[in-house]
Amino acid sequence: MALGPTSLRGRLALLFALGSGLLVLLAAATLAVTVNTAVQNGINNELRARADDLAADLRAGDIHVRPEEAFAEVVSVDGKVLAASRTIVNQRRILGPSELAAAAHRRFFIDRHVPGLEGRARLLAGPARSGDGKVVVVVGGSREALIEARNRLALALVIIGPLLIAALAAGGWMVAGAALRPVRRMAQEADAISLVEPGRRLAQPEGHDEIAQLGRTLNSMLDRIEATFAHEQAFVDDASHELRTPVSILRAELELALLQPGDAAEVERALRSSLEEAERLSRLADDLLVLARVGAGQLPLRREDLDLRALAQEVATRTQVHAGPAVDISGAPTMVTADRARLEQILTNLVVNARRFARSRVRVDVRPQPESVVIAVADDGPGFPPELLPSVFDRFSRTDAARGRDAGGAGLGLAIVAALAQAHGGRVEASNSGPLGGAVVTVTIPSAPDRRAVASVLR
Q1: Which residues of 343-357 are buried (b: 16+ CB within 10 A; e: fewer)?
Q2: Contact, 78 vs 94, CB < 8 A?
Q3: pTM for this entry
Q4: Cα distance between residue 413 and residue 3, in whole Å
Q5: Nearest partner of 455 among 420, 416, 411, judged by Cα
Q6: pLDDT for 234
Q7: Residue 199: φ, ψ to 5°
Q8: How far is CA 417 from CA 287, 441, 455, in A?
Q9: Res 268: pLDDT
Q10: What is the 3-state secondary structure (H, E, C) of the chain?
Q11: Given this model, what pLDDT does residue 194 score?
Q12: Structural domain spans, the chain
């Protein structure tokens, strides 16, 4: 159960009140010490001045106490009262034997009740000269003024202190409310924003303070969320479209075979066509699963040491088609620690994609670097359309000429290359400045696993 205010404004006001209370307490203590010291010093200075005046009279040989002296006494060192004020009851000696002996050698203050002075008194006793002899001078004054000043100050602080703390807490409450008002407005607007209103943003406070920065940050976050949602929505739409085509063809072929069950040749043709579409569906589902797992950071990588150049040669041989563009492999044997199946998928996608658009040649160049390996796949084709280059690694990204059923692929090949490269902690680049005059795709992956790399889909 919460013991304090649940709202930020309430907590800020409480902290303001506690801080103000601590400051008021420190100020009150400082004021009390200052007033007490000032009044006490005033009493002490007054007693010193009176003792000095009385000592001056004694040095002149006049052993008496002036009539205007409120409370004073002259005592010989053997304890005999030589002169005293009228206020001293029965002209009795004020100091005790030990105090008298000490006062014969030095001055000191004594606080106690003394007949003839109201309440607690302060005495100043010390030596003085009278002719050729030594005497002890005692002067005194009431401390009631000091006590009364302290009591009045304490009463004022007890009354004013809580009122001051309350006023400061109320001021803190209002200041916090004014400071948090833009935050409340942004919270209300954020609660009202939904995906059915694309483009709606929070009203940004003016200035460059933390609240304005919060507004800009939240709006930037909304921009990213909306872009991500639009991206995922486009992905779902494209995936639905890509799945719909082979499913429709598969259904049509099966329905045709059912309409002509007696025609063995037609049934076989329909079944073969259906198998092709089923394989196409399987590849598409596998590609989508790879992208989904990489996007969720759940794609397992079974790393092993392998020769990347030898793997590139295997892929080139396996994907070779009759009368198709030749694939040249260049570079020295290069060892890398990576997932063999995923690197093979990267090389296969790149080589197949390059062969699809090459005129006569495809070149795979494997280049080791100090801490990474570069795989560059180039072709002598027309290259990427300039408008496609910024989004060439997006999912379902294809030129218009590659959108037909017979063009091959669903526009996921390069997206999978980018995703798998990033899963290995690497990166991809595409350009039209290839060594063969056409397109070139460059994949850079670390030679050894990068523990800090986090798999994510290139968006």
Answers
A1: bbbbbbbbbbbbbbb
A2: no
A3: 0.50
A4: 58
A5: 420
A6: 67
A7: 90, -10
A8: 11, 10, 13
A9: 82
A10: CCCCCCCHHHHHHHHHHHHHHHHHHHHHHHHHHHHHHHHHHHHHHHHHHHHHHHHHHHHCCCCCCCCCCCCEEEEECCCCEEEECCCCHHHCCCCCHHHHHHHCCCCEEEEEECCCCCCEEEEEEEEEEECCEEEEEEEEEECHHHHHHHHHHHHHHHHHHHHHHHHHHHHHHHHHHHHHHHHHHHHHHHHHCCCCCCCCCCCCCCCCCHHHHHHHHHHHHHHHHHHHHHHHHHHHHHHHHHHHHHHHHHHHHHHHHHHCCCCHHHHHHHHHHHHHHHHHHHHHHHHHHHHHHHHCCCCCCCEEEEEHHHHHHHHHHHCCCCCCCEEEEECCCCEEEEEHHHHHHHHHHHHHHHHHHCCCEEEEEEEECCCEEEEEEEECCCCCCHHHHHHCCCCCCCCHHHCCHHHCCCCCHHHHHHHHHHHCCCEEEEECCCCCCCCEEEEEEECCCCCCCCCCCCC
A11: 65
A12: 10-147, 210-292, 302-446
Structure confidence by residue, pLDDT tens digits, 83-112: 888 877 677 888 888 988 998 899 999 988
Question: How much is the pLDDT for 6?
Answer: 64
Find the length of the chain. Answer: 459
Question: Would you say 329 and 364 are in contact if contact means Cβ atoms under 8 Å apart?
Answer: yes
Residue 231 is predicted with a pLDDT of 67
| Residue 24 CB partners (closer than 8 Å, separation 6+) | 161, 164, 165, 168
Residues of the chain with confidence (pLDDT) below 70:
1-6, 8, 89, 194-199, 204-205, 207, 231, 234-242, 245, 295-296, 322, 397-411, 450-459
**What's the CA gap between 364 and 351, in Å, rounded?**
8
CATH 1.10.579.10 for domain 302-446, yes or no, is: no
Structure tokens at 16: 């303001």
Identity of residue 253: E
Sheet holding 72-76, edge to edge: 81-84, 72-76, 133-142, 120-130, 108-113
Determine phi and psi for 121, rounding to 5 degrees.
-120, 160
Q: Quick one: pLDDT at residue 406?
A: 43
Domain topology for 210-292: Helix Hairpins (1.10.287)
Encoded tokens for 250: 């598969």
Residue 4: predicted pLDDT: 58
How much is the pLDDT for 453?
43
The encoded tokens of residue 415 equal 């997206």
- Domain range 10-147, CATH class: alpha beta
Of 344, 358, 321, the closest CA to residue 443 belongs to: 344
